[in-house]
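> example.struct
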């Protein structure tokens, strides 16, 4: 058989393989798809990639959630190549395994660490609040995928519950809002990173007042 291929599609891995040119004289009725584990062995995942499924046989492809590859029994690390071999089966038995792929999808996860250094930004005023934070950019901390951010806030006595304020769309590490900001009010914020595969743990809470430092005093006098 030819080499199978893997590709990352959304939060899944799609495996495809070529039709065998030599069925051995009897029609191929199913395939066995095995993925390499972190220990070097090969394991099937019949829940998602059962090579006897008629649709799999017809398409010579199957779709597997990315999330299974970083858990037992595969236990790959972020960035590891997802390696696969395929065996064709007829009524006489299984073929020898196909060659293992040397390129293709790599293991990915949700971001592995929390956003850090969430704080009041210098552009905060009495009518707007700016937040700044340190982004997650290095693999495997970002799970091997593009990372963006969600900002949650608690308006305290105004609402007193956490709600999503915004999801950024450009991987920014600052955000400014003037919506529903009341001068002098205290607000709480948390930020989480997210990618195609899920979200990081929440950051620590930042408490920010819609306020600025007092203006300068008049010159003092002495009596």
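> example.seq
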């Amino acid at each position: 058989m030819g080499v199978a291929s893997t590709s990352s599609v959304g939060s899944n891995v799609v495996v495809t393989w070529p039709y065998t040119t030599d069925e051995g004289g009897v029609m191929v009725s199913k395939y066995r798809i095995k993925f390499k584990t972190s220990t070097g062995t090969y394991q099937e995942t019949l829940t998602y990639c059962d090579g006897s499924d008629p649709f799999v046989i017809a398409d010579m492809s199957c779709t597997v959630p990315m999330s299974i590859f970083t858990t037992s029994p595969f236990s790959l690390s972020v960035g590891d190549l997802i390696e696969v071999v395929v065996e064709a089966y007829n009524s006489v038995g299984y073929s020898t395994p196909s060659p293992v792929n040397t390129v293709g999808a790599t293991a990915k996860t949700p971001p592995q660490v929390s956003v850090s250094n969430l704080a009041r930004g210098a552009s905060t005023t009495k009518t707007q609040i700016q937040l700044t934070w340190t982004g997650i950019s290095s693999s495997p901390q970002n799970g091997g995928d593009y990372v963006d951010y969600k900002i949650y806030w608690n308006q305290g006595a105004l609402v007193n519950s956490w709600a999503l304020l915004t999801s950024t769309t450009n991987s920014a590490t600052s955000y400014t809002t003037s919506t529903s900001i009341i001068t002098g009010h205290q607000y709480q914020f948390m930020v989480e990173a997210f990618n195609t595969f899920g979200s990081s743990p929440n950051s620590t809470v930042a408490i920010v007042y819609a306020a600025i430092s007092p203006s300068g005093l008049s010159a003092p006098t002495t009596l």
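> remarks
The longest helix spans residues 54-59.
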